[in-house]
Amino acid sequence: MCGRYVIARATSDLLPSLLDGLGPLPDDFNVAPTTRVPVVRERHGRRELPLVRWGLVPSWYPDLKRRPQPINARIETVATSGMFRRPFAQARCIVPAAGYYEWVVTETGKQPHFIHQPDAGLAMAAVASAWPDPTKADDDPDRWVATMSIITRDAHVAPGEVHDRMPACLTPDSYDDWLGDHLGSDELLDRDSHEIAHDLVHYEVSRDANSVRNNGPHLIDPLP
User: Fold this and answer.
1) Mean per-residue pLDDT for 9-33?
2) Which is an annotated GO molecular function term of this record (predicted)?
3) CATH of the domain at 209
4) By residue range, what is the domain housing residue 91?
């Protein structure tokens, strides 16, 4: 986790204090790594909703093809690791989601589950980075490639957990602190994500979700 999640236009209604005035979200019921996805960030005291590539590429990487490009950052080390320390301190963002998928291995194959918070969206904490493309001029608006990783935590605090990791999510009271420049540690995120974990529910969905080629609202319909 987190390797696949869901965005929907209705997510704006589920996260009103996060997305108010930022415009509609796209419908994507099978968001996969490397996709450009909307995130909420704060610049010059105002929130905005840019599209950011999922899979963090540090500014010091020589090229976009270098691996790894992690899609997740662990809450236990995000503030101190060489890969994430600077993004955590300077470029935090929030990934809005309707929910996410996890899989259970069964005798007949991988069974996807949709995990979400009833009557609310998920404000998944993330860190971002901007990679400068050396093939483009300094004044080229496409020179900087924005990327991000979603922060995860131990999932065993969630009832009936499906996987050992889960996204670390924020409560509405903490949005400003997370997006601002005055957050000194990860204590806020640990507290909030622990609280939200207890509200999560999950159910089995169609195995169509196993392939990124499949999309549409039917992917999150519960199986009979």
Assistant:
1) 92
2) peptidase activity
3) 3.90.1680.10
4) 4-220
